[in-house]
Amino acid sequence: MADNCPMQHIYLDHNSTTPTRPEVVEAIARCYAAGYANPASQHQPGQQARRLLENARQRVAEILGADLNCLKPDRVVFTSGGTEANNLAIFGITQAGRSDEKGTIVVSSIEHACVLEAAEQLLERGWRLDTLGVDGNGVVLVESLRAMLETSSLQADHMPLASTRPASPRLVSVMLANHETGAIQPVQELAALCRAAGVPFHTDAIAAAGKIPIHFRKLGVDALSIAAHKFQGPLGIGALIVRPGVTVAPMLFGGHQQEGMRPGTESVALAVGMQTALELWHEEQNEHHARLVALRDRFESGLKAARSGAFVHSDAVPRLPHTSNVAFPGVEGQILLLALDMAGVACSVGSACASGSTELSPTLRAMGLPKDIVAGSLRFSLGATTTAAEIDEAIARIVAVCGEIGG
Predict the structure, then answer these.
(1) pLDDT in tens, 89-100
(2) Are residues 35 and 83 in the same domain?
(3) Is 194 among the residues known to form the active site?
């Protein structure tokens, strides 16, 4: 008799988005049920909404190591998500007070598309774009930024007084942890170099927030981006945290909200949802981290034991606890991805924003890996809902599919 039980789907693509926690859904639903007024309104219902909004802003800042209560406070600017937060940092900081002036922006070669493509837009407008390389483990080379800043300083010393072209970069942007390999970047060292050179530094922490502890002030960065749906919060909200004294030119106009940096009526419900998700992770972070590391190691060791030649990228350096990028030599990654989907295993070839693209992973290419290895690699990302039973079943399915399509 045929087995009519539906196949269990195993979701190993939490870096693309995470399932929203029930507690977060409940918190958002309570806000909608309460029918809060516009938080910018001056009447009492508006003031009540404003208090909830500002409490969410305060809690997000506290958990991520920002200070909104000191003499020179940091700022938490709510956005529609990570892409907007990164774009606001790239365009807002580089063009603050001097939108017609061309300059230099520096990014790493492994940035997410919403940073790389924003920087490339500046290139199209006549800016200079410099790229920081990475080593074979996908870690940005600190010395390459040091040399770049020293060269800029020497150029400035010999620049004619009449010259209007700035020699130093207008902004350096390097992610806190890579979204494809999980490799954690030396952001604190890079930011210190920039601070000594008087150059603003932004970090995309979207892949890292809700996965590893983040302390904005200790990192020494000038701006930091997050997105709620990456840590079991709601889609549609993110934030840019900005150090005092850093001017951010707005990309939107038509309101006074958030000091004019990001005008528009803020969503109290989404802000509370992000706050709730971050608080829950913060309370459980040690247990969460240990569980994910154990599951990731179980997954990787099981695959390597069962599939000859399979290996894990960036496993020799500190990584996010839930991200595993695995190479399957002799197998075409795009074909394997589709076959695994049919077998009930959801994963990706890289960033979700590049889904559907046949371009090879920019991160793996930047690491100097052979084309066939890059083409035969897939990203698996675990989450709070992943179980040991799912890991074992995923290994069995992956090995079976690899055998069918790759021999």
Answers:
(1) 999 999 987 767
(2) yes
(3) no
